[in-house]
């Protein structure tokens, strides 16, 4: 049966204490080598220098991004946002210790209507017991994720979110109409370089990333894949529509109780779809994608009957 019940957001775990420690090691290396603002911090170079795997390095860089020390660009990865001497003495002991949990609490409270669409830092600081630097870091992270926007004057405004099971089902129905049809558009040409990047991301998830990545990272990898496939249509309205839907469902996906065993099948199906597209079998790819989305809808939200 259909339901308009409000979506429940599952509580999220805290950031692992190991991540701030690894972030501090990265900063020590930056200062020791006197790296300049704008310097590109590559995951592989840091893995080699610190003798750790790629996943925790990526999380540490994302953690540093939330503090404003580094910034990221889709085409260039992570770069230093400050000169090495500017980060001397930066204390990471409290940064992000409970940020992920608070992030989800704020999102859940917004969905339930406990928080107004427009808020101020002071209001949020009081409600969640955070100091201003912590609150600013958290809001900057939420802004980067596209959940809030800074108002021209003071305060912040939340973007639209899916707030019911029915609206979430509708988002999947919309995607089932949009994405498979995009593959059948005349002149459809997928970006093979970007598709290869998607292949690497999905394989990394299957090789252990599913168990190590945060819900946000898993969501980003899935969104990147689906938006890359849709972009092959060459129609900006198709891509914009899909990105808009993904933006609205982001928090729901972050907060859904995560069945990581299901994600193995999802990644395997993504790889199968990539193979169909590379071979130019567009009709088969379109049918496969529709079934893939329908299975995800039923698995996450149940039958509508």
What does this structure look like?
- This protein has 305 residues and is mainly alpha-helical.
- It is 62% helix and 6% strand.
- The protein is built from twelve helices and six strands.
- The strands form two sheets. It has a three-stranded antiparallel β-sheet. The chain has a three-stranded antiparallel β-sheet with strand order 4-6-5.
- Strand 2 and strand 3 form a beta hairpin.
- It is globular and about 60 Å long.
- It starts with 17 loop residues before the first helix and ends with a helix.
- The N terminus is likely disordered.
The helix count comes to 12
The backbone outline, from C-alpha atoms, is: globular
The low-confidence runs, each spanning 5 or more residues with pLDDT under 50, are 1-6, 8-15
Q: Which second-level CATH architecture of the largest domain applies?
A: Up-down Bundle
* CATH secondary-structure class of the largest domain: Mainly Alpha
Q: Give the total of domains.
A: 3
Per-chain topology:
Layout: H1 18-33, E1 40-41, H2 43-50, H3 54-67, E2 70-73, E3 77-80, H4 99-111, E4 118-119, H5 121-128, H6 132-144, E5 148-150, E6 156-158, H7 165-183, H8 192-212, H9 215-231, H10 236-255, H11 260-278, H12 282-301
Antiparallel strand pairs: 1-3, 2-3, 4-6, 5-6
């Amino acid at each position: 049966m259909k339901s308009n019940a409000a979506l429940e957001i599952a509580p999220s775990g805290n950031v692992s204490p190991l991540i701030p420690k690894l972030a501090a090691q990265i900063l020590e290396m930056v200062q020791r080598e006197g790296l300049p603002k704008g310097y590109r911090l590559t995951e592989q170079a840091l893995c080699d220098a610190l003798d750790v795997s790629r996943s925790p390095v990526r999380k540490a860089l994302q953690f540093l991004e939330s503090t404003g020390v580094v910034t990221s660009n889709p085409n260039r990865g992570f770069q230093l946002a400050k000169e090495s001497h500017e980060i001397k003495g930066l204390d990471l002991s409290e940064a992000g210790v409970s940020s992920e949990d608070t992030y989800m609490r704020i999102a859940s409270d917004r969905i339930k209507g406990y928080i107004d669409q427009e808020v101020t830092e002071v209001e949020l600081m009081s409600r969640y017991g955070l100091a201003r630097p912590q609150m600013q870091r958290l809001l900057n992270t939420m802004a980067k994720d596209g959940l809030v926007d800074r108002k021209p004057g003071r305060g912040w405004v939340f973007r639209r979110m899916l707030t019911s099971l029915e609206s979430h089902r509708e988002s999947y129905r919309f995607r089932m109409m949009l994405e498979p049809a995009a593959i059948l558009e005349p002149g459809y040409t997928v970006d093979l370089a970007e598709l290869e990047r998607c292949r690497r991301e999905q394989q990394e998830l299957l090789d252990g990333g599913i168990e190590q990545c945060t819900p946000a990272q898993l969501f980003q990898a899935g969104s990147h894949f689906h938006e890359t496939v849709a972009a092959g249509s060459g129609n900006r309205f198709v891509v914009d529509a899909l990105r808009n839907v993904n933006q609205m469902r982001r928090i729901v996906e972050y907060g859904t109780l995560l069945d990581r065993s299901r994600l193995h099948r999802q990644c395997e199906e993504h790889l199968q779809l990539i193979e169909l597209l590379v071979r130019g079998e567009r009709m088969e790819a379109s049918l496969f994608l529709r079934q893939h989305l329908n299975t995800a809808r039923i698995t996450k939200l149940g039958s509508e009957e």
